[in-house]
UniProtKB/TrEMBL annotation:
Origin: domain of life: Bacteria
Pfam family, any one: ABC_tran
InterPro entries linked: AAA+_ATPase, ABC_transporter-like_ATP-bd, P-loop_NTPase
Classification lineage: Bacteria, Bacillati, Bacillota, Bacilli, Bacillales
Native organism: Chengkuizengella marina
Name listed for the protein in its UniProt record: ABC transporter ATP-binding protein
ABC transporter domain mapped to chain residues: 4-229
Spans traversing the lipid bilayer: none
């Protein structure tokens, strides 16, 4: 079953097109990574899916309904980010009880275990938490709600490394026990790639690619070696990124077109072939900067 279907989704803020005819769908019970550079439109998309803001044009269906202000969806869809707001007069433990009354699949046991594991003071207030603790508390709400569609928008903001690792472990354990549709937006693809089943990469408010993570791992590879040899091997390939790392050494990332004998030819020519880390690949695929940061410091 498709949990989200959207076609030609567009969102305009004044003159800025945050989403520009974006189309994709998400099947149920998968963890999808939403990846894109700063300003690509991730938060805008997630807020439309959660029903917080309305699209300008195009079609979007979440659980077969239009999401904006949709009460049917609100108990089954949760959007977690570091701006979640809670009443300032209700202590943390009471907030868990309020959440329990709202989300039908809420798991009190999980919420309490996480609350105690992360050493929250039951009597303190949400607005008094540090940045990392705020994200940790919000994450508890997101996990314990066990919503059929759980959206985490940059959920680890401010968390230290050990808490981030704990969060990803908790997310995976709970997902395996209670499969649901999860969208995880993060700038740290390397941290989350082992969790993901699918990747939706967006650029300038449009879908750039959507595929299983296993396919993305095969999407491209890198060659490094003598300029002329690398050029010969890649002249008929789609080049994603190229860098001269020394006067006669070139590093090139090319799209994998499935040709079998390239490996042999490269070995024969003394050119090294290596896989491309997914986080690097997504950066190169969606690069918007002119040249590299080194150019800023070049006087000529
Ligand atoms: N309320 C708003 N008013 C005007 N412009 C907005 C508004 N919200 C978002 N935008 C613009 O829409 C574009 C997409 O923003 P969005 O926050 O969705 O990107 P993002 O991919 O989540 O970025 P980041 O990774 O930096 O958080 C940006 O150019 C942003 O400035």
């Amino acid at each position: 079953m498709r949990v989200i279907e959207c076609s030609n989704l567009t969102k305009t803020f004044f003159t800025k097109k945050a989403l520009n005819k974006l189309s994709f769908s998400i099947e149920e019970n998968k963890i999808t990574g939403l990846i894109g550079r700063n300003g690509a439109g991730k938060t805008t998309l997630l807020k439309i899916i959660a029903g917080f803001i309305k699209e300008t044009s195009g079609e979007i269906k979440v659980f077969s309904e239009k999401p904006f202000n949709n009460l049917n969806n609100s108990a089954h869809v949760i959007y977690v980010d570091d701006h979640m707001s809670f009443p300032s007069t209700i202590p943390l433990l009471e907030l868990l009880k309020v959440a329990e009354s709202f989300y039908p699949n809420w798991n009190r046991d999980l919420a309490m275990r996480l609350f105690e594991y992360f050493s929250f003071d039951p009597k303190t207030y949400h607005h008094r938490l540090s940045k990392g603790k705020t994200s940790t508390f919000n994450m508890i709400i997101g996990l314990a709600s066990r919503c059929s569609l759980t959206i985490f928008d940059e959920p680890t903001t401010g968390m230290d490394e050990s808490v981030r690792k704990d969060f990803y472990k908790a997310l995976l354990k709970d997902y395996i026990a209670y499969p649901r549709s999860i969208i995880l937006s993060s700038h740290h693809l390397s941290e989350i790639e082992d969790l993901l089943e699918d990747v939706l990469l967006i650029k300038d408010g449009k879908t750039y690619l959507q595929m299983p993570i296993s396919e993305l791992k095969e999407y491209a590879f890198a060659l490094q070696g003598n300029n002329g040899e690398v050029f010969k091997l890649t002249s008929d390939k789609e080049v994603i990124f190229k860098n001269h790392i020394a006067s006669n050494v070139t590093y090139v990332i090319v799209k994998n077109d499935g040709s079998k004998n390239l490996l042999q030819q490269a070995r024969h020519a003394g050119v090294e072939i290596s896989p491309v880390p997914l986080s690097d690949l997504c950066v190169y695929l969606t690069n918007e900067t002119n040249g590299g940061i080194e150019d800023v410091f070049n006087e000529n």
